[in-house]
Design goal:
By secondary structure, the chain is an alpha+beta fold. The chain has 2 domains: 44 residues, no CATH class; 116 residues, Mannose-Binding Protein A, Chain A (Roll). It is 12% helix and 24% strand. Strands 1, 2, 3, 4, 5, 6, 7 and 8 form an 8-stranded mixed sheet that branches. The longest helix is centred in the middle third of the chain and has 10 residues. The protein is globular.
Length: 173
């Protein structure tokens, strides 16, 4: 998307580059004159990190971070955002195997059920779950969150988010 700045319509103050302040207007047509300046600004999504931050584990194009502090689900989501990521979503057996090794206690994953067994990831990414035998059924009816249990290394539907568990965060890169 290109944004145009027309200095003839609103001249910049002395000593300030015309591109320093960009006025957003709907521009149907521009007629270049000696009094006009056209500036462009990219509105692309912010760049994701080329490598994982310190304390994070790299798995393909994602970074994961385990934190043993106990939080309910809502506070876990806030914590992961404060770390520059999201509550973890898992999308492959490789990612799942890696996070099983990171988790030292029961940890929330970023999975949410509508109470009818329909699961989605908190970060909006496409749903994935491991094969049978690597989870406990994931009914998603009365229990609407998923936790990774370090003891049996399986996903379990786990309460409604009020419980205080450890946390697993992720960053896509």
């Amino acid at each position: 998307m290109t944004i145009f700045y027309d200095s003839a319509a609103g001249s910049p103050s002395a000593g300030v580059s015309p591109c320093g302040e960009i006025r957003v207007d709907i521009v149907l047509e521009i007629w270049p004159t000696a009094e006009s300046t056209v500036c462009t600004k990219s509105l692309a999504k912010p760049k994701l990190p080329a490598k994982c931050p310190g304390g994070w584990t790299t798995v393909d194009n994602k970074c994961f971070k385990y934190d043993g502090g106990k939080r309910n689900y809502a506070d876990t989501v806030k914590y992961c955002k404060s770390q520059g990521g999201n509550i973890a979503s898992i999308h492959s057996d490789k990612e799942n195997n890696a996070v099983i090794n990171l988790v030292k206690e029961v940890a929330f994953l970023g999975a949410e059920s509508d109470g009818k067994g329909n699961w989605k990831w908190n970060d909006g990414s496409k749903w994935w779950q491991p094969a049978n035998g690597k989870h406990d059924g994931l009914a998603g009816r009365s229990e609407t969150k998923i936790a990774l249990y370090h003891g049996d290394k399986k996903w379990h539907d786990w309460g409604t988010g009020a419980e205080k568990l450890s946390v697993l965060c992720s960053i896509a890169r």
